[in-house]
Amino acid sequence: METKIQIIKFGGTSVGTGERIRRVANIIAHKVHDTGEDFPVVVVSAMAGVTDQLLRIAGLACNGEYQDCETELHALIQIHLEAAKTLLLKHEDRYNELVDDLEMAFATLKQDVTELQSSATTSNVHEVPLRTAAIAAWGERFSVFLVAAAVRNSGVEAVPVREEAIITSHPSKKTYQPAGIVIGTEPLTDETRINAQRLAHPLIESRIVPIMPGFIGRTTKGFVTTLGRNGSDYSASVIGAALDCTEVTIYTDVDGVLSADPRLVANARLLPRLSYAEAARLSWFGAKVLHPRTLIPIAHRNIPVRVRNTFRPHSRGTVVGSERTQRSAAAAITVRHQLALITVENTDMFGAPENAGQVFALAARAGAAPVAICSSSGYHLSFMVEEQAADSVLALLQHDMGTWRVICTKGLAACACIGSGFSADPMSSARAITALARERIPVVTQGASESGIILIVEDQDSERALRCLHRDLIAPVIPLVRHGTQEKRREAR
Ligand code: ADP
Ligand code: ASP
Ligand code: MG
Fold this sequence. Notes:
Blueprint: E1 5-10, H1 18-33, E2 39-44, H2 50-62, H3 66-88, H4 92-121, H5 128-136, H6 138-153, E3 158-160, E4 166-168, H7 189-205, E5 209-213, E6 216-219, E7 224-226, H8 232-242, E8 248-252, E9 273-275, H9 276-284, H10 296-299, E10 305-309, E11 318-321, E12 332-345, H11 353-365, E13 372-376, E14 380-386, H12 387-400, E15 405-418, H13 420-424, H14 428-438, E16 445-449, E17 452-458, H15 462-473, H16 483-492
Parallel strand pairs: 1-2, 1-8, 2-5, 3-5, 4-6, 8-10, 9-11
Antiparallel strand pairs: 6-7, 10-11, 12-14, 12-15, 13-14, 15-17, 16-17
The chain binds adenosine-5'-diphosphate (ADP), aspartic acid and magnesium ion.
């Protein structure tokens, strides 16, 4: 196809109300009208809070709490009808068309809930995770109708894409989270490419903007799947790669990737440029602004990712790109919570090259990827895993490693100081450790790489640690000095 396309993805807060969806529609319309912009393919999340609500509905249905389930369903429907009203009430035909689409979707959601109820109460409990995923998928589908209607109302041709663009593997038992939602189903590259192009190309050729659901996929056998919680960033880059896009823009509720989570650090700074490696590490260590898998489909093809603010569309945001073009000179601090430290010890262990591999293979069998590898010697190896996986890792290691001593410490968090700016300064690591020491925050263990340092602390200290690291390494907090106080000081001299 000749037309160059870009992916623009809007997160849950960006489509959180009818008013916000109208802003989203303006951004999309602006891109279509601007001759300097490539043609947009839009990927949307569920309205903020809706996926949580759908999972609550699924949980209530499974537990037989039918009254509460009905109440939640009613509230969910109202949120979407309210948004439809805000968007289109003055345009009767369009409003009726949108409400018809939504009503049909609500009816199918209710059927899905009934089917989940019967699976949970009969011998078909093995169907519960897949049926739960099918319910979780509805948030994105509702959003697609609302956004497409808003874009059309702004005078631009747009179509809600009713099918899932992403084709995924069939989920294995390992990919089920306790809440029942299917995680980690992997997109199948070739199948997704054929399917996404089949859905999008005819629309793009007619200059109709495809509005696609993020987060969700379908197996080759037709089961609905998801890419896991917060997976819509990832779905945007999967669809982008499948459509050979020139760029992916993630529109969210902050100005871009910042030097720390702005909800925790008031003076966090915007990072205008990041390399793929820096952005990947930041998201791995907890920067929610990008899903950790987002860069996988596109980094090797040098497709840039922008992160921009829906509510301040003129702010330039962050561009994530290849190392050569995107040296950041920046550093950022992130925190990943709910981790456990696993230490394996023996008197004659890691001299043998296969032993370390055996430890990680066992961790993998328990469904745990090492979050960080902290230290090793000939006699010990220690690494971090997610707390929820720690007991199974421990049990497997104790069972299979015979005489080895295995210790597990829970309740930890990793504070990561990351970026070429951090490692360029030889004093950075010393300053990081001193910052924590001054606040009397003990460092349980640590790991370092060419792009920064990871300090493991007690989870209860982690937010304090984040703030003091940011203050001492990135942006000092300058106390507000009241004028009167200054005068008094001068007088006292
Ligand atoms: P969306 O609904 O658009 O997907 P998310 O809530 O998933 O948005 O991600 C955006 C949020 O990520 C921000 O509101 C911010 O609180 C959080 N965040 C965490 N770390 C960072 C960071 N380093 N830079 C920017 N935002 C961050
Ligand atoms: N709606 C999904 C979730 O809340 C995906 C996303 O918003 O990224 O997990
Ligand atoms: Mg997100």
